[in-house]
Design the sequence.
């Protein structure tokens, strides 16, 4: 599998790849990535695990356009962030994205369904290394590598 990871998103030697605990625990209704109540959200739904690879999908609609008829790169990056984030949380702790590196390989037209896959490449202390990719009609369209950082519960306390 080709990796898009840089030195900052490549796990160090000795990092372990833990088993994932299904389902992902982050079902916050207001989440842009997965929330049912986020009216402008992309509503990614975890659809299962293939070994250590989590699978999900979303369909690009007009509201996601950048150039006419094409998905905005930020939407695709957000979808990858969500997919990787769900895998991080299936490691059993709370994580946030510290760094997200994204390659955009082909334009993604409105109406496309992007099939996303994400997996962990290693955990080292508070750092979790994740990778993922999105295919459209069987063709690799986007991919990402990320560093997630474990945070305490208080990180998610509501702010004024
Ligand atoms: C209620 C349910 C809701 C559930 C909601 C779940 C939503 C999930 C959504 C998907 C995921 C997201 O989008 S999360 C949202 C986007 N992300 C964020 O908002 C994160 C904002 N950033 C932060 O809060 C902070 O910077 C942290 C937590 C990432 C790190 O701060 P910290 O805790 O003080 O730790 P710090 O010492 O700085 O860093 C720890 C180690 O990580 C390294 N490190 C930190 N950041 C980076 C980085 N960008 N690139 C490289 N390395 C980094 C440091 O060098 C250090 O390495 P060493 O010296 O130890 O070697």
Sequence:
């Amino acid at each position: 599998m080709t990796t898009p990871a840089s030195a900052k998103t490549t796990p160090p030697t000795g990092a372990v790849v833990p088993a994932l605990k299904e389902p992902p625990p982050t079902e916050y209704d207001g989440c842009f990535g997965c929330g049912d109540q986020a009216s402008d959200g992309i509503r990614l739904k975890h659809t299962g695990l293939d070994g250590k690879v989590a699978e999900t999908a979303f369909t690009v609609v007009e509201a996601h356009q950048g150039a006419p008829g094409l998905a905005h790169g930020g939407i695709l990056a957000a979808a990858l962030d969500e997919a990787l984030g769900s895998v991080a949380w299936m490691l059993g702790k709370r994580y946030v994205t510290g760094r997200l590196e994204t390659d955009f390989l082909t334009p993604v037209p409105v109406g496309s369904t992007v099939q996303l896959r994400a997996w962990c490449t290693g955990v080292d202390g508070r750092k979790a290394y994740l990778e993922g990719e999105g295919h459209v009609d069987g063709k690799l369209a986007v991919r990402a590598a990320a560093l997630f950082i474990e945070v305490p519960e208080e990180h998610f306390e509501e702010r004024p």
Observations:
- The mean pLDDT is 93.
- The CA atoms of residues 127 and 149 lie 5 Å apart.
- The chain is about 10% helix and 35% strand.
- The beta strands are 45-50, 53-59, 95-104, 113-124, 127-136, 139-150.
